[in-house]
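Action item from last week, closing it out:
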Amino acid sequence: MISGSYQSVMQARNREEFRAEIIRFTRQLGFQTVSAMVVIDRTLGKSEFITIDNTPQAYLDSYVDEIAGKRDPVSQHCKKASLPIIWNQDTYVSQGLGDKWEHQAKFGYATGIAMALHLPEGRHFMLGVDRDQDLPADPSELQRVVADLQLFAVCAQETAFRLLVPPASQLERPRLTPRELEALRWTMEGKTAWEVGALMGISERTAVLHVNNAMHKLDCANKHQAVLKALKLGLIY
């Protein structure tokens, strides 16, 4: 039963068991291939990717092609949105990528459903299932499949971060002082250093010092990056 898969994936003890559970769920759902990906945002726009999948060996080169990934409408949707995308040939043809669909369909990637969970602290979990047949024509049946995938993704993401991300790779939460955090909050509101100083009752120079200290602790090149990273880490709201 699919309902048992939710508990089983949460109890996986290692990478191999996790992979077996997501493949088992995928096949119970009526699909052949699956990709589960953990993404951890780093500083300066860099990210770390960890993937578990059962991609056919013959398709691996195309699957890991970074340039092709940037063109893929399903991947691009998941980077920006949390709602699942239900895709088929039309998804690619409408973007002028009919040739890409023709190529991947040869390996069983004709239709599918994909989604992403965008979590705090710059963490993301993407899950996609694919098959070589049309998706269910009955809207209620398709809705059920999507709902099952969404629930499984919520369960699987906890296990994915527990098993796939070493403690040393977890995003650190730098210790910023209350004044540094306050300066970042006002900066987030678009205040200048002079305005931040006035609001905090300190000099403009001291306000700049607080922001610079926060930038250094967050390993960011400018105050805008520092604000974004502090938001991702949950240090400011």
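Closing note: The chain has two domains: 2-169, 178-232.
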